[in-house]
Structures are given as C-alpha cells and as structure tokens.
DNA sequence: CTGACGTACAACCATGTGGTTGTACGTTAC
DNA sequence: GTAACGTACAACCACATGGTTGTACGTCAG
C-alpha cells in the first residue's frame, strides 16, 4: 500500500483544507465520482470562483488533482494523501495506547496507585 | 468503545486545530504525559500567551481539556475526539473502496487479492 | 467566424488567526 | 501579609482566508 510521508507544512495544508465543510463535501463527491469544476459549482450556493478557490486549496494540499479533458477540468481524488492523514491520527492513538500500557506496567509492578 | 459523533462545526474546529505544527506537538506531548500550560510554554520559542491561545484552540475543538490543580492548569488529551477524527478519514477510504468495488463489479472482474 | 461554455485570475472586502505586550487576579511559598 | 508564580484576557498588528464581482482566454458547437 502506498503511504507517502507528509512533511509538517503539507500536514498543515491537508488539515487546513479539511477544516471546511464545503471542501470536505467536494472530497466526498469526487471520491464517489470525478466531476468538473463547474459541475461541482452547481451543487453549492456560492459563486463559481469561490468553488474554484476551494478546489485550488484541496489541490495545494494534494487531496485532489485536476486533469484537463477538452475544455473541462476534471477533479479527481488523491487517496494517497487522505490515507496519509488517517495514518497520522492513528499515530496519536498509538502514543496514547503506549502510555496506557506503560502505566499498567508500573501499576502492576510497584503498586503505585495511591489515588484514584 | 466511545466514539462520539461530531457535527460539521466541530469537525471544522478539530481539523483547523490540527492544521498547526505547534498544536499538533502539544497534542503529542500531552498524549505522552499531561503538562501545565507554563510547562508546555517553556518548550516553544514563543510567548506564554501564544501557547495559551494554542491550548485554547485545542480546547474549543475538544482535543484537550484543562483541569485545575492547585494554581496550575493541567492539560489532558481528549482521545475520544482524536478517535472521531480518525473515523472520519476512514469514512473517506470506505467511500473510495466502495467505488472501486462497484467499478470492478461493472467490469465483471470480481477476483480478490489483486493489489493496486 | 461567432457565440456559448468552462476556466483562470485579479481586485476588493470582511473576518479570523497567530503572534506580540501589558495588565489583572487567584494561589502558593515564605 | 507579601512576593512570586501560573493563569486569564484585552488590545493591537500583520497576514491568510472565504467570499464577491469583473475581465480575459481557450475550446467546442453551429
């Protein structure tokens, strides 16, 4: 499985891009089926230019790519980056789990739990 | 396992909060071990007030909680929200996988075990 | 060729964000 | 009680963001 490593700046961009309901919806849509920018724009109550900007933000974060097809620009999802973001959150859970394990070990060995 | 459902506004706040390297580092730190706000502040090359604001952002996103302990305010992680964010990204992968499955079905190619 | 469509991009505005400094307040140590 | 510590919060600044409108350009249909 392809899991690219993201540098901090790209992580910034990925999470920032996902911090907007419209952009999350665009990602969901193109995951189901690719769509041109205007096709996407028709789905939202905002100007075409606004949607175009949202797509640009997703593109800079490598969450989607655009592919010229005649006079249309078709938006595709970039699953690799989405997966990488998920892996990052998994890492947080690992740290937490590791800590719980260490605590259990300490409590098991030295009977340190004085307060609850 | 506790997995709270996040409303869109909270998802906005969670991802926005994670879109900053300092805040991600704070989350990592308190996942390993709780720390007071000043203890955290000592780790970064910025004013105490700046770190305090970062903690406030994480708190509004329910990624951490503060707990008064004497005159200190101890920052704890909120694993439930972190987990919920991970689940959200998993959902994207599910959509993608569902689409791949549908395409394979249409193509009549229902073999299993081929890698992508 | 012409007109309509899809796109790109600049200018502009309001608002939010990330940082600063300064001030105030409760709590602990002496 | 007083001093020092940990915190909270307001005011301020620079800059990014999310939206708008307007203009320009390439591409396809007629």
Describe the overall structure.
The structure is a homodimer of 116-residue chains. By secondary structure, chain A is α+β, with helices and mostly antiparallel strands. The first copy, chain A, has one domain: Arc Repressor Mutant, subunit A. Chain A has helices at 8-18, 21-32, 37-41, 48-60, 79-110, and strands at residues 35-36, 64-69, 72-77. A three-stranded antiparallel beta sheet of chain A has the order 1-3-2. In chain A, helix 1 packs antiparallel against helix 4 and helix 2 (21-32) packs across helix 4 (48-60). Mean pLDDT of chain A is 89; it is low at 111-116. Chains A and B meet through helix 1, helix 2 and helix 5 of A and helix 1, helix 2 and helix 5 of B. The first copy, chain A, binds a DNA duplex (30 and 30 nucleotides) through residues 16, 20, 22, 36-38, 46-50, 52-54, 57, 70-73.
In short:
The structure is a homodimer of 116-residue chains. By secondary structure, chain A is an alpha+beta fold.
Number of helices of chain A: 5
- Per the CATH scheme, the topology name of chain A is Arc Repressor Mutant, subunit A
For this structure, the quaternary state is homodimer
Mean pLDDT of chain A: 89
Largest sheet of chain A: 3 strands, antiparallel
**Overall domain count of chain A:** 1
Report the C-alpha radius of gyration of chain A, rounded: 21 Å
Helix coverage percent of residues of chain A? 55-70%
Secondary structure layout plus pairing:
Two copies of one chain form a homodimer.
Chain A: H1 8-18, H2 21-32, E1 35-36, H3 37-41, H4 48-60, E2 64-69, E3 72-77, H5 79-110
Antiparallel strand pairs in A: 1-3, 2-3
Helix pairs in contact in A: 1-4, 2-4
Chain A binds a DNA duplex (30 and 30 nucleotides) through helix 4.
């Amino acid at each position: 499985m392809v899991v690219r490593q993201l540098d901090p700046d790209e992580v910034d961009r990925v999470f920032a891009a996902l911090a907007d309901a419209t952009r999350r919806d665009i990602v969901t849509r193109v995951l189901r089926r690719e769509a041109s920018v205007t096709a996407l724009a028709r789905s939202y109550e905002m100007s075409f230019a606004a949607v175009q900007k949202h797509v640009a933000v997703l593109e800079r974060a490598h969450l989607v790519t655009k592919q010229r097809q005649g006079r249309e620009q078709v938006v595709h999802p970039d699953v690799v980056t989405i997966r990488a973001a998920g892996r990052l959150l998994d890492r947080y859970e690992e740290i937490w789990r590791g800590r719980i394990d260490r605590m259990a070990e300490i409590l098991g060995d030295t009977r340190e739990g004085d307060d609850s």
